[in-house]
Automatic annotation (TrEMBL):
It comes from Candidatus Viadribacter manganicus. Its EC number is 6.1.1.20. Residues 114-355 form the Aminoacyl-transfer RNA synthetases class-II family profile domain. This is Phenylalanine--tRNA ligase alpha subunit. The lineage of its organism: Bacteria, Pseudomonadati, Pseudomonadota, Alphaproteobacteria, Hyphomonadales. One of its GO terms (molecular function) is tRNA binding. CDD domains: PheRS_alpha_core. GO terms for cellular component: cytoplasm. PANTHER family: PHENYLALANINE--TRNA LIGASE, MITOCHONDRIAL, PHENYLALANYL-TRNA SYNTHETASE. The gene is pheS. Its cofactor is Mg(2+). One of its GO terms (biological process) is phenylalanyl-tRNA aminoacylation. Binds 2 magnesium ions per tetramer. It catalyses: tRNA(Phe) + L-phenylalanine + ATP = L-phenylalanyl-tRNA(Phe) + AMP + diphosphate + H(+). Mg(2+) binds at residue 263. It holds the Pfam family tRNA-synt_2d.
Length: 363
C-alpha cells in the first residue's frame, strides 16, 4: 500500500525484537517510554493522523492501534516473566530444607548431683516412696531435739553445726540443717502412718577436704507402719544400690553403730574393689561405708505424735555427692561446687535424657 504501512511493520518488528532482548526491568521500562510514552515513537505517529485523508487515517489509525496493543502486551508479558524469574531466584536462594534436624539450643548440662537425684527419685519412686522436702534452715527442735539428741548435749557439736543468730520459737538458735533427718520429723508431724518417703537436699557441716565440703547433699529415707523391720530395710537398700550402680549383685555389710534417732543403728558398707586405684562397686573384697540407718527410735516417734506401741519403722541417710563420685568417677568433691565450665561439660548430663529404670538409670 504505502510507505507508512511498511514503516509500521518495520517499527513493530524492531520494537518486539528489542522487548525480547531487554534483560532487566530498567531497560524494559526505558523501551516502554520510548515506544508508548507521550514523546514516544508510536505517539509521534499518532500525531500524523490529523494530516491524513479520512481513508488513510482509518487504515493507518487501526494499524497503529494494533501495533500499540501488541507492543503493550509484549512488554506486560515480558515484565511478568521477569518478575517470576526474580521470584524463582529468590526462592532458590532462600530455600530451607525442612528435613534437616533442628539446631539444638545450647542448654548446658545437668549437674551430676541433679542427675543422681533424678536417678534416686526414679529408683525409690518405683518402690512406692513419695518425695518430701524441707528447708535448709531448720529449728534446733527438728534438726536435733525431736531426733532424740539430748538438750545441750555435745552431740550437737559433733555435727560441726553452723548455728545462726536467728532463734526459733523455742528460743534456741536456728541451724543450717546438718542432715536431712529433720524432714523425717516434718513428715511425721504432718502425716499419719503408713509413711514411705524419701527426701533429698542440701546439708551443711563445717568441714572441707577432698571428700568433704561445707555444703553437701543427702538422701533420707523413712518408712513407718506397723510391721516394717530391719530385714525390710536391708532388702530395700540392696535393691536400691543394685539399681543405682546398675550391677546384678552387690554385697552390703551392716555394722552396729550409734545414732541418737535410731535403735538399733547400723552403718552400711558396700562391697567393692579398690585395687588399681579405682573403686569398683559390686566386685572385690573391700568395703566402703556409704550410709547410716536403723529402726526409728521410739522417742522420735513420740516427739512426732506417733504411738511407738503401735507403729515402727526404719530410716536411712546417704551422701548423694559421694554416690555420684562412686558411680561417675570424679576424684575431688570440691570440684562439684567450683562452677568450672570444663568440669561441668565433662561430667554433666544431657538435658534431653531422663533417667528411668527401663534403660538403666544412668543412661
Ligand atoms: N542423719 C544421719 C547422718 O547424717 C544418717 C542417718 C539417717 C542415720 C537416718 C540413720 C537413719 O549421718
Amino acid at each position: 500500500m504505502n510507505g507508512q504501512t511498511t514503516d509500521l511493520a518495520a517499527l513493530e518488528a524492531d520494537l518486539l525484537a528489542r522487548v525480547d532482548a531487554a534483560n532487566d526491568e530498567t531497560s524494559l521500562e526505558a523501551l516502554r517510554v520510548e515506544a508508548l510514552g507521550k514523546q514516544g515513537s508510536i505517539s509521534a505517529l499518532m500525531k500524523n493522523l490529523g494530516a491524513m485523508s479520512p481513508d488513510e487515517r482509518k487504515t493507518f489509525g487501526a494499524g497503529l492501534n494494533v501495533l500499540k496493543d501488541k507492543v503493550t502486551e509484549a512488554i506486560v508479558t515480558k515484565k511478568a516473566a521477569m518478575a517470576e524469574a526474580a521470584l524463582d531466584r529468590q526462592l532458590q536462594a532462600e530455600a530451607v530444607d525442612v528435613t534437616l534436624p533442628p539446631v539444638r539450643p545450647r542448654l548446658g548440662t545437668i549437674h551430676p548431683v541433679s542427675q543422681v537425684m533424678e536417678e534416686l527419685a526414679a529408683i525409690f519412686g518405683e518402690m512406692g516412696f513419695t518425695v518430701e522436702e524441707g528447708p535448709d534452715i531448720e529449728t534446733d527442735f527438728n534438726n536435733f531435739t525431736a531426733l532424740n539428741f539430748p538438750p545441750n548435749h555435745p552431740a550437737r557439736e559433733t555435727h560441726d553445726t553452723f548455728f545462726l543468730d536467728a532463734k526459733g520459737e523455742d528460743g534456741a538458735r536456728k541451724v543450717l540443717r546438718t542432715h536431712t533427718s529433720p524432714v523425717q520429723v516434718r513428715t511425721m508431724l504432718k502425716q499419719k502412718p503408713p509413711i514411705r518417703m524419701i527426701c533429698m537436699g542440701r546439708t551443711f557441716r563445717k568441714d572441707s577436704d577432698a571428700t568433704h565440703t561445707p555444703m553437701f547433699h543427702q538422701i533420707e529415707g523413712l518408712v513407718i507402719d506397723e510391721t516394717s523391720t530391719m530385714a525390710d530395710l536391708k532388702s530395700v537398700l540392696i535393691a536400691a544400690i543394685k539399681a543405682y550402680f546398675e550391677v546384678d549383685d552387690v554385697k552390703l555389710r551392716f555394722r552396729p553403730h550409734h545414732f541418737p534417732f535410731t535403735e538399733p543403728s547400723a552403718e552400711v558398707d558396700v562391697g567393692c574393689d579398690k585395687s588399681g586405684g579405682q573403686i569398683k562397686i559390686g566386685q572385690g573384697d573391700d568395703w566402703l561405708e556409704i550410709l547410716g540407718s536403723g529402726m526409728v527410735h521410739p522417742n522420735v516417734l513420740k516427739s512426732c505424735g506417733i504411738d511407738p506401741e503401735k507403729y515402727q519403722g526404719y530410716a536411712f541417710g546417704m551422701g548423694i555427692d559421694r554416690l555420684a563420685m562412686l558411680k561417675y568417677g570424679m576424684p575431688d568433691l570440691r570440684d562439684f561446687f567450683a562452677a568450672d565450665e570444663r568440669w561441668l561439660k565433662h561430667y554433666g548430663f544431657s538435658p534431653f535424657l531422663l533417667p528411668g529404670l527401663a534403660q538403666g538409670v544412668g543412661s
